[in-house]
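Amino Acid Chain and Its Fold in Token Form
===========================================
Purpose: to set a sequence beside its fold so the mapping can be learned.
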Amino acid sequence: MTQRRRGLTAFLLMTFIAGYAHGQAVPAQSLENLMVVVRESPNQNRQTDALVAITKIEGTLPNGTKFVEYPAWFQYIGDTHLRFVFDAPSMVHSANMKDLERLGLSPEKALAVAMANLKRVYGSPTSVPWNDLQLVKGKEPDYDSSYFLDREFWAAISKSHPDGVIVALPKRGGLLYTPLSDVKAVSG
């Protein structure tokens, strides 16, 4: 399933635009297939987890057509941002602000719906050892980073590590953590 989503990071918005430009069918856009992914926002270090809309994206398609899009993307905490998407068997489709409005969702409600869908479709996350760290995994690797938003999972992890944990999103789809007490892993 991972290969079907190769363009999820770099071309998520472009699939939205190009799909219309080339007449391709897009997945159904409903509450049932709304998902969320977490991605890096380089050179950011937000100190709050309040969702702040990334207002618009402008560009030019390969055929020269200019576009302006209002994606359902939100700055999050630290150097991360959230992207709402519609999931389908053969592709994902970037959600935009009008989609959230049409579905009657505030950003916070969209996040709750997307996380419930993620767990319903791809299951709850698990931790597996990876070098000196723990790798967080679900049934679809491209959504593993989304489990960064699973408060229940992190509450359970916190019970086992009362001193705290450090979490890293080192690459698209990846999610790692280590207890603060593991000095070797933390320094790495």
Notes: The first strand starts at residue 34 and ends at 40. The chain has two domains: 2-121, 126-187.
